[in-house]
Design brief:
The protein is α/β, with parallel strands linked by helices. The protein contains 15 helices and 22 strands. The chain has 3 domains: 113 residues, Beta Barrel (Elongation Factor Tu (Ef-tu), domain 3), CATH 2.40.30; 286 residues, Rossmann fold, CATH 3.40.50.300; 112 residues, no CATH class. It is elongated and about 100 Å long.
Length: 548
């Protein structure tokens, strides 16, 4: 449909032009238009996205001329113009269109050409445009074929970062032609994600229609397993409001803790980088690995053949070594602490004891209950109610194990999509930690191994820059004005930075390498429940749960 003509009263370049909107037509921000022009003996089409819309009075000179115009005292025309930023020229003849050339709304095949959908071999829905058209994402920039990883930024509670991360995961699970796909979701806040396999009874007809447009049914996630903390004092009982066969506790044996070097993830606070404690942590991690390697199956023995069955036993060994050193005998001390000073060893012991109090429920003397991410399509790991030390320990331990498993294989299948919120806590811009090393490995080498990160954070400026640099897809929700001034948001061209200040819930700005301009999109409320009250079916909670 023709909406206007190319204006000649404003400069026209090969990258942008202005449209004079004809009477009776409606053009708004984010509309996709194209102009047709004759260049030589060939027809050239200039595709673009509306980035600015203006209305003003032509012929008006004074402040109150608008009053006079409405009263019919003076003859004045209302000018309705729109600026179009080009996304594509077919064929590639970079000569500006000519004033007076017709401009049309891009529909069907023209819409697909404007946004390069015709060149995407595999595309998945990423949301809907303001006009209700499906916005697609090039799957090959998500799965590692041409690029990988997603970075989602936005203010807490307003930007719906986690909601969009799950929607994107839901879309790719529904539309990807690959069957060998798994997902690991860390439930960081609240208990929102413990019901994603249940239908949302509050889903509106508009949301159902939006899902239908994108080729999705109004159904929750399928084939989900929920991994939750073990109940304190009883590893066989999940510490969760929800109690059914899909909810299982997870924990490690003390031998696994030693063999996999998990003690490193107990010391991840920033202050650790300012002392010699990391030297001791690394030495003790190597010592525990050696003890596990030379202990009988299912047990962990110290160098004197004594069983180590708990964190308390470990703490006793460290205390014993320090006390012997203070009494003049340093043989045992050197086994554990090497040449570190006794003051540093004491500092290590204090921090170990503090971390152990938050992590001990996840360590069993002899048994383990691992996270078996390949057994189900989606694995939700609930760490929402835990202290930040325990959260960081679990994220680090799980991702390290996943990465090692994927490294041991000769191909990237099955691909694993990891959804992790609060990424700025696990991979901060400044400082170092074992978790940051693991997340960096995933960002830089995960593409080839089939480990894809969908990370969310409040502030991209506080994330390790190499993680952002390796994220092919960038998404922004509502942002704070001071945050938007940072160079991490340079991809928000034209007026998108200003618009990010006023975005509503359910609206996001998407950038992908295929398309020169960011795209504004909206996505529906989820068809899965985000809290127990939204669950369509009755969920049974044992009456004696609180008596465990």
């Amino acid at each position: 449909m023709k909406v206007g003509i190319v204006l000649g009263t404003k400069p026209i370049t090969p990258l942008e032009f202005w449209v004079g909107v004809e009477t009776g037509n409606l053009v708004q921000l984010d509309d996709v238009l194209y102009a047709e022009s004759e260049v030589g003996n060939q027809k050239v089409k200039y595709y673009g996205i509306v980035q600015e819309v203006q209305k003003f009075l032509e012929g008006a000179q004074w402040v109150y001329d608008a009053h006079l115009a409405t009263q019919g005292v003076i003859p004045i025309n209302i000018a309705y113009v729109a600026k179009v930023s080009l996304t594509r020229v077919e064929p590639e003849v970079f000569i500006p269109p000519t004033p007076g050339d017709p401009v049309y709304t891009a529909e069907g095949e023209e819409f697909e050409k404007a946004l390069y959908y015709d060149q995407m071999k595999v595309k998945i829905p990423a949301g809907l445009s303001r006009s209700g058209k499906v916005i697609y994402l090039n799957y090959h920039f998500l799965d590692g074929t041409e690029g990988a990883h997603v970075s989602i930024s936005g203010m807490s509670g307003v930007a719906t970062k986690t909601s969009y991360a799950l929607f994107l995961l839901y879309s790719l699970l529904n539309h990807s032609k690959e069957r060998r796909i798994n997902a690991i979701i860390f439930n960081v806040k609240g208990k929102d994600l413990l019901w994603i396999d249940k239908k949302n009874k509050n889903l509106s007809r508009e949301d159902e229609e939006a899902l239908r447009k994108m080729g999705m049914r109004s159904e929750p996630f399928k084939d989900v397993k929920f991994y939750v903390s073990p109940y304190p004092g009883n590893h066989s009982i999940p510490d969760s409001e929800r109690q059914d066969e899909k909810v299982v506790p997870f924990y490690w044996s003390l031998r696994e803790f030693a063999q996999e070097g998990l003690i490193r993830f107990m010391f991840v606070e920033e202050e650790e980088t300012k002392s010699q404690v990391p030297y001791i942590v690394e030495r003790i991690a190597n010592k525990l690995y050696y003890l596990a390697k030379h202990s009988p199956e299912g047990r962990l023995l110290d160098s004197y053949g004594r069983d180590i069955e708990s964190f308390q036993d470990l703490e006793n060994r460290f205390t014993e070594a320090i006390e012997q050193a203070e009494a003049g005998s340093k043989d045992l001390y050197k086994e554990w602490f090497g040449d570190a000073s006794i003051q540093t060893a004491r500092a290590f012991l204090r921090r170990f004891s503090r971390a152990a109090s938050h992590i001990k429920r996840f360590i069993h003397p002899t048994q383990s209950s691992p996270i078996k991410w390949e057994e189900n399509k989606v694995s939700v790991i609930d760490i929402s109610s835990l202290h930040s030390i325990a959260q960081m320990f679990i994220v680090g331990a799980v991702l390290k194990k996943l990465f090692e498993e994927k490294e041991s294989r000769s191909n990237p299948f099955p691909r694993v999509f990891v959804v992790l919120d609060e990424l700025n806590k696990y991979a901060p811009k400044d400082g170092w930690s074992p978790i940051k090393d693991v997340v960096l490995d995933i960002a830089e080498r995960g593409r080839s191994l089939g480990v894809i990160l969908i990370g969310a954070q409040q502030t991209a400026s506080e994330i390790e820059k190499r993680i952002l640099a390796n994220s092919a897809i960038k998404v922004v929700g509502r942002m704070d004005s001071s945050e938007l001034l940072n160079k991490e948001y340079e991809f928000l061209t034209n007026n998108f930075r200003q618009r990010a200040l006023i975005l509503k819930k359910g609206s996001m700005i998407l950038y992908q390498p295929d398309i020169p301009s960011p795209l504004m999109l909206k996505f529906p409320k989820p068809p899965w429940a985000t809290r127990k009250q939204e669950v369509e079916e009755e969920v049974h909670v044992p009456e004696d749960f609180n008596n465990f």
